[in-house]
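**User:**
My hope is that you can spare some time for a protein that puzzles me. This is the protein in question:
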Amino acid sequence: MNMKLIKQRDFFLLILGKLVSLLGSNMQQFALSLYVLSLTGSATIFASILSISILPRLLLSPVAGVFGDWFDRKKTIVLLDLLNSIIIGTYGIIFIIKGSLSLPMLYIFVILLEITEIFFNSAMSAVIPSMVEKEDLLDANSFNSLVMNVGQLLAPIIGAILYGSFGLKLILIITSICFLLSAISEMFINIPKKHKKPEKINIKVFMDDLIEGINVIRGNRFISTMIQLGTIINFVIAPIFSVGLIFIIKEVLKATDFQFGIFQMVLSSSMIVAPIFATGYIKKVKVGRLCYMSFILIAISILVMALIPSKAMIRTFNGHLIPYIVLSIISFMTGVLATIANIAMGTIFNQVTPIELMGRTSTVFNLAVTIFIPIGQMLFGYLYDIISASYVILVSGAILIFTIKRYKALLTELDEPEDGMEGDVLGEI
């Protein structure tokens, strides 16, 4: 990674603000997961809490994408971080007063945070590409990935200690303060004003701009292929990491909250190792081959993972400690592979998408590849409740293997540069 980037004041403040807010939000998500599971003991209800976020994403992603390109991105991210601070702080105060949060309140809480996240990500999608040169994008995205994963590494262990000692209420208050500090940091960042607000705002102008972003996706071979592949992969993989592993660790292996925090830390550390040590490798390997090999190895890891929660495995080792350790190791390897693929794909997306269209293009892209995640979470969450977790993960791995094999030809085609593609980016990375 290019260390000169972190010495740039604006980039440093941006990364610092993201780290602070990520620490708070990841601690909150960690504690909220434990709170919901302790409240209900059901993977189905836990999955429904995660899946409810699809409603605002379906309704608001197109609006957020266009607005992200229309309005000043600096003002937008500052205001939304302040709004997050207010929402989370309010829930913290309610928890202190009432002593608990009901399931309906938690559903509303998740929806409110999802709404702010949709608009925030739309505005943020063009911030890094507008702040650094194209040749520095890979390093900038590696730094961004590193910071995000440092937050995911530290948050679970801190969250486990705080949740075990003080419960959810203190974590809500701390998270509120983290978002406030992040907003203050962002106030001092100089972000190039490359947004393009129309002279008149109406339905016709909105639809024209939205269609323009959709056409960028349809006209780019890399993006359209990744949408097809990403939709299926996310449907299968997301439930494993957002529902399955948590359910296995807590309900099957009966791990303590501290052990669960350690597991989350191990998973996050794998995503830190990748941007530090693999950036040079990513630059040398063509994206099609890189994605294909990464996804194949992930699928194999998942098939091996299916053995761990089985009764035979637990009986063989006369306890849960060894299966817990093996699961942590496999999850670490999977995290490294997934991070390498994400950095490469994210960099290419930034390079081939015009900055003035980044908001609407990225939101449509993200909506397309994540729309089936909640369905997968609900379906697989229900399966975890009624059949062995080993069978559920085995089915997930088999689907993934079949999908990657089916899309092998398309992934290979990504390594052939498109006519007119600036810098032949698809052929270089």
